[in-house]
Please model this.
Amino acid sequence: MAEGGNSFQLGEHTLSVPVSLHAKNRDRLCERLKNVKGYEKGSVVILEGGQSKTRYSSDTEIIFRQESYFHWMFGVKEPDFFGALDVDSGKSMLFIPRLPEEYVVWMGRIHPREHFKKLYEVDEVYYTDEIATILENKKPAQLLTLRGQNTDSGLITKEAAFDGISNFKVDNTLLFPEITECRVIKTPEELRVLRYTNKISSEAHREVMKRIRPGMKEYQLESIFYHYVYARGGCRHLSYTCIAASGENGATLHYGHAGAPNDKTVNDGDICLFDMGGEYYCHASDITCSFPVNGKFTDKQKIIYEAVLKSSRAVMAAVKPGVSWVDMHLLADRVQLEELKRHGLLQGDIDAMMEARLGAIFMPHGLGHFMGLDVHDVGGYPEGVERSTKPGLRSLRTARTMQAGMVLTIEPGIYFIDAVLEKAMNDAALSSFLVREKIEQFKGFGGVRIEDDIIITEDGMELMTDVPRTVEEIESHMATGGDLKPVI
Model:
């Protein structure tokens, strides 16, 4: 196996990530495959990396980001690579594109094969037009290709294909569940990167909270966040499209898309829901902060915020290995319903509310999700784990039992979504729980979400996110930005 000490880093102020992280991942995969039923000795894994793309029919290139499974195995930054792994020996191979001479004029130096062998600490490097010949010489018993469905997107992974693959025996069922399970449980090296992305993104959220002023545009706050994680943390990519919602926009769960592009003016009296996370070395973060634009919670804002915070912290106190994630969602639901009843928005028996799935009216999304190389990370519903059909629960991105080494978000929320509430008011099974005149007072409120990133440990959890969370902490922190000029 190749040895070395290379690392990825974008300046001394950013995290240094050893390339050996990927060698460890490959070793884990080999051990898992060799012990799985149906494995045939002499098999070789073959993966196709991400491809460079242009914007529609133009020649404008989209900034490349490596495909996550390929990054997990090899850490390659460049597009159009293939990679192979001899399972029995653990030897690794990269296949690089054979670039034309004019590449050097437009794109820069053309590196020899030895450069990539050393850079990525693999055993062998060849060109992509040699894949069939090189593999034929190695006489693999079979090629293991990656084909499976992402349970969040419903999309199928891109299976490696090359000229001559039809001459090999190919198995496209064995690899996917095993490499996915490897990704579900993070190594210490991977956790170190995820802690870093949380640190930088937490700092960026703090900066936004200090700099916000009534009259600014939502996108200006989004840009403050992005500038911070990129300039300070080396995060060229964000983990997902920023949700920079203020006022009633906070009731739109995935606000910030092209049809609602963070373009509202933030007004005095609004509460913000800012869901934003930087990505470093393809490792995600996913943090949501909810806070008042003017730095002071109104009584109504405080009621909803503290209900969500209580729910969040109840889950954090309960989550540990062996606990069902579905049970954690139900716990969050129960706490929020109890708080809404205590403040007069609901009436009746809490157990009856739970049975009727009333919680989904105020929190239609799931409690949280796996996170890693993808913000909604893989492995949520492996074979044998069924998705609930009940409101709220069917939106859970995993229904698994917790294990040490899993990384998840905890993100309860309460939203006042007009269409959802109006439908519930006219539903005989739900309307008796709702105090219409009290709920009407929250029309146009938007929503509150509190989202933190955690690691499941041997006896509980580790909180990676570090932002002000209590009402007092938020108000105190936002007051420190009093002498800052708004970014207009």
